[in-house]
Amino acid sequence: MANLRSSKYHCLLAFQFLVLLQTEVLSSQYKVGDLDAWGTPSSANPRVYTKWSNYHTFKLGDSLLFLYPPSQDSVIQVTEQSYNSCNLTDPILYMNNGNSLFNITKSGEFYFTSGEKGHCENKQKLHISVFSGNGSAYSPSYGPSASEISPSYPTVFGTIPQPPSSSLSSSHSLSIPVFIAAITGLLVCALAGGIM
Predict the structure, then answer these.
(1) Distance between CA atoms of residues 130 and 153, nearest Å
(2) Which DSSP string corresponds to 103-138?
(3) By mean pLDDT, which of 90-94, 95-99, 118-122, 190-194 is the weakest?
(4) Interior angle at CA 176, CA 173 and CA 181, nearest 5
(5) Are 158 and 30 contacting, i.e. CB atoms less than 8 angstroms apart?
(6) pLDDT tens by residue, 48-59
(7) Cβ atoms of 120 and 90 closer than 8 Å
(8) Closest CA to 70 of 41, 39, 48
(9) Which end of the chain has fewer beta carbons closer than 10 Å to its terminal beta carbon, N or C?
């Protein structure tokens, strides 16, 4: 049995802590458009949000940050049909605090636009694809065929979604790395305990 006061034991605990800490750093926060603020694209760069979303790869645990003057704009999450037609009625999610954070809690396609009339038509909208572990934006058990997946369109920003009714899918993605880190730490401690 390892001596709990030995420096080797403390090193092993520190190593295990660092491995566990690393699993929590795997997600990123993206400032939408990498612009100073969420807004209507300029005529010089009307496809700014399309280019931005194509440049990034999003995964579970990531988040989108939309910054804008709350008195002048908002962000709504909409369906693909509403996104394509710029229909602002009945959004999935509505954010208007000027510092809106959308947490990605599941894989799939997400569509955002400005909640202000005329902004969507001026290309202030964002479409992102969030891929599961198998490289698909959908889980293997459901989702459209390849012919049904729409092309990439400019997308807007979104608000913080309500947590899913079952948190198994989001917690499961982090449970495997945490489990592996814990087993690795136990094995290292067991081996070090046998050496001491």
Answers:
(1) 14
(2) E--S-EEEEEEESSTTTTTTT-EEEEEE--TTS-SS
(3) 190-194
(4) 135
(5) no
(6) 999 999 999 999
(7) no
(8) 39
(9) N
How many angstroms separate the CA atoms of 153 and 80, rounded?
Answer: 10
What pLDDT score does 103 carry? 96
Tell me which residue has tokens 């939309």: 66
Q: What is the pLDDT of residue 48?
A: 92
Whole-number Å distance between alpha carbons of 150 and 141: 19
Q: Per-residue DSSP letters for 62-111?
A: -EEEEE--TTT--EEEE-HHHHHHT--SS-SEEE-SSEEEEE--S-EEEE
Q: Band the pLDDT of 105: cuts 50, 70, 90.
A: very high
Give the model confidence (pLDDT) of 150-159 as tens digits. Answer: 333 333 444 4
pTM of the model: 0.60
Q: Enumerate residues 6+ apart whose C-beta is below 8 A from 39.
A: 68, 73, 124
Q: Could you give the CA distance from residue 125 to residue 66 in angstroms, rounded to a whole number?
A: 12
